[in-house]
Each structure stands twice: as structure tokens, then as C-alpha cells.
């Protein structure tokens, strides 16, 4: 019965966001306990703390662009639009057009990229984030960055990450490709 109810939730998500939930259904059908552990990431990724929607989605969108080439990115874009982040802001976050973003959104956009690149220049921006939103805001950004990376990694691991697509924003279509170059395969001969 619980498997049936959880699958109904997944089908609702599929319909709401036009998102392929097969990888989650695969986990659910394999083992309910394992699926419930996966749901812990849902709780973590939904955390917003005291952050407004636009900075929160700046962290999520910039993160997903590092690891995904379409479907997960589109899901987060759709969620940002649903949270009333304007299409223009979403586009500027994707394009990293900092001059078109409010100062707080530009700050999180830049900070996220520096964190993902393990760049020590993130330290200066971290202080600005702490001044704006305190530790709670910084933790919310940390949750957004770390939990967002789970989904594409899991999809690719399970064999569901091969679909690439253009990102759709109202009246616009953008190409999508991961920002980070994959590490070269090690040659162990």
C-alpha cells in the first residue's frame, strides 16, 4: 500500500512538472526503505530557511548547470518560475548575467560557482552572505548546493541521465550543457 501511495506522489510530480520520474520509481520498486532514505534529500533540498526565492533558486540553478544537461535543470527552472522568480531573473541566472540580477541574487550566483569550483574567493562572498542572512541563510545555500547535486549523480548512476534538452523559459529556449568539464578517466594499465 505504501509503495502505491508513494508512486502516486511521483506520478503527481511527473504531471505537475512534466518530469521523468522513472529513476525514482525504479528505487521505489526495488526497495521501499531505500526510497524513504532517498526522500531525505527531498526534505533537505526543499529547505529554504530565511532566504527569499530568487537567491535560493540562484544557488539551485547554478548548481544544476554544473551536473546536468537538461531535464533536472528544466525541473528546477520550472520550480523557480512556480515560486514566482521572474523569467528574466531565471534567464540572467542561467546566463550568469550578473548585471541583470538584483545584488543579492548576483551574490549567490557568483558564490555558488566559486563554491562548486572550490575557489577560495568564495570566502569574501561568504562574509557578505552572512551579513545579509546570517548562518541560517548560509546553511540554506549550502543545503541547496549540496542536495541539488544528488539528483543528476543518482540519475546517471542508475542509467537515466542520458537525455539532454533545451531549457524552456516562457518565450525563450536556451541550450543546456553542464558547466563543469568531467574529470578525465584515469588510465590504469
List the helices and strands and how they pair.
Elements: H1 2-17, H2 22-30, H3 32-46, H4 53-67, H5 71-82, H6 87-95, H7 103-116, H8 122-158, E1 167-169, E2 172-174
Antiparallel strand pairs: 1-2
Helix pairs in contact: 1-2, 2-3, 3-8, 4-5, 4-6, 4-7, 4-8, 7-8
Protein name: Carboxymuconolactone decarboxylase-like domain-containing protein
SSE ordering: HHHHHHHHEE
Strand content bin = under 5%
Task: State the domain count.
Answer: 1
Question: What kind of assembly state do the chains in view correspond to?
Answer: single chain
Helix/strand/pairing category = mainly alpha
Q: Got a strand count?
A: 2
User: Residue ranges: pLDDT <50 for 5 or more in a row?
Assistant: 181-189
Rg over CA atoms: 17 Å
Number of helices: 8
Helicity level: 55-70%
How do the strands of the widest beta sheet line up side by side? 1-2
What does the main sheet amount to?
A: 2 strands, antiparallel
Shape: globular
Write a structural description.
The N and C termini lie far apart (50 Å). The chain has one domain (41-174). The chain has a two-stranded antiparallel ribbon with strand order 1-2. β1 (167-169) and β2 form a beta hairpin. It contains 8 helices and 2 strands. The model is unreliable at 181-189 (pLDDT under 50). By secondary structure, the protein is mainly α. The protein is globular.
